[in-house]
Write a structure and sequence with these properties.
Length: 403
């Protein structure tokens, strides 16, 4: 498809779809034409001429002139059906739907191989930050030790309001919802589910390992209260919702958890809807990527970058997967130790025995906490994560070791 004219069929004309359309209009040098845009709402007024729109998905999928399908809808099941039919029809696909990719990753990989068609999804991870392309190309022969960072702009916006403006959680959440950074039901963002889907995609390109979202543990920021925030301030920390994956021995660990970060940690200064990703290579050491993790134009620009890459015949080669093809004993594991802070509104009798080492303990009426080293698998099975009167936060010394 090198320098060929791209003829686009787009599904969805919401925030990202409009961002793509307007960035495409203003870019120079990219030979791409929007043929049709498939939408659901027949009553909504649109800002571009009506001849672009259709309500019939097959008007795009069965059109032989359309050679690239761009999927930008909210429904992951409908998105999956669109993407699979497009790929099997020989059309290249660009998607921003991280849940759809994460839920069906290995199958989508196999379809790409069988039909020799590209599926690109840079915008699904951290919007404007080119994480996937860098893992595929820049780090293709570097041994990656770890990837971690802030992968969700909504939760980061809320935490920024709490630490920079002394807002309480409920106020910060309401403000995020009013500004369009958080949904009416915000659990996908604040609960770490969105970050988890992105982490699944990152693990595949960093380590060549396909994992399902249900295999990745996620725990959000919704139980953090004023006591936890005050503890962080007294220690000179901020709290960030951090996704991390690390190779430990022959295993890979991965999870999403709130974490205390020190001022010298680069994630300390990542505010509002910005995302930040740290890649640790065995040879290149630490490198950092910063960019807006949400929004019409940032996400639209990432989709545009994928479309541009298609004009040069680009596709993911899944290099880490193929490098590891003869060494499939690389698996997701949870038998590792790390340092955590656990605060509980009640006694610590059932929690204290879980720790291998207790570094700090505080008892004061009904609010108590422990800081120490604990086995992740032991902590998961303890029930602490289901306790609404407790919170678990990664220590600022979040070194991960084999249990």
């Amino acid at each position: 498809m090198k320098q060929n004219k791209i003829k686009l069929g787009i599904f969805g004309f919401g925030c990202v779809g409009q961002g793509l359309y307007y960035t495409l209009e203003q870019t120079q040098g990219l030979k791409a034409e929007v043929v049709k845009i498939c939408i659901k709402d027949r009553t909504k007024e649109r800002s571009i001429p009506s001849h672009y729109f259709t309500f019939d998905k097959d008007e795009i999928l069965d059109n032989p002139d359309i050679n690239v399908v761009v999927e930008l809808i909210d429904d992951p099941k409908a998105a999956y059906e669109i993407v699979v039919k497009a790929l099997k029809s020989g059309k290249a696909v660009v998607t921003a739907n991280k849940k759809m990719v994460a839920d069906n990753f290995e199958e989508l990989f196999k379809i790409q191989q069988e039909y020799n068609v590209p599926l690109l999804y840079e915008s699904s991870c951290c919007a404007s930050i080119p994480v996937i392309r860098n893992l595929e190309e820049y780090y293709d022969n570097d041994l990656i030790n770890a990837v971690e960072g802030i992968f969700n702009g909504s939760s980061n916006y809320i935490l920024t309001k709490i630490f920079n403006e002394n807002a309480v959680y409920a106020e910060a959440l309401k403000d995020a919802q009013e500004k369009g950074f958080a949904e009416t039901n915000p659990i996908l963002d604040v609960g770490g589910f969105d970050s988890k889907n992105k982490l699944c995609i990152i693990i595949a390109h960093a380590f060549g390992l396909f994992v399902k979202p249900e295999q990745i543990f996620n725990y959000g920021i919704q139980n953090i209260n004023a006591f936890d925030v005050q503890y962080a301030r007294e220690k000179g920390f901020r709290i960030r919702l951090v996704g991390f994956t690390r190779k430990v021995g022959k295993g890979v660990v991965g999870a999403v958890l709130p974490a205390f970060v020190k001022e010298e940690n680069i994630l300390y200064s990542i505010n509002n809807e910005y995302n930040g990703v740290i890649v640790e290579g065995a040879f290149s050491e630490n490198q950092f990527f910063l960019g807006k993790g949400a929004g019409s134009y940032p996400t639209g620009s990432a989709v545009l970058s994928d479309i541009s890459a298609l004009t040069y015949g680009y596709k993911y080669e899944y290099k880490k997967y193929h490098q590891n093809i003869e060494n499939r004993d690389l698996n997701l594991v949870d038998d590792f130790k790390f340092e955590v802070y656990i605060r509980r509104n009640g006694d610590l009798k059932t929690i204290a025995p879980l720790f291998d080492e207790i570094i700090e303990v505080h008892r004061s009426g009904n609010i108590n906490y422990l800081v120490g080293t604990i086995s992740f698998s032991k902590l998961k099975s303890s029930g602490v994560f289901e306790d609404n009167d407790a919170v678990v936060i990664l220590s600022s010394n979040n070194k991960i070791e084999i249990a």
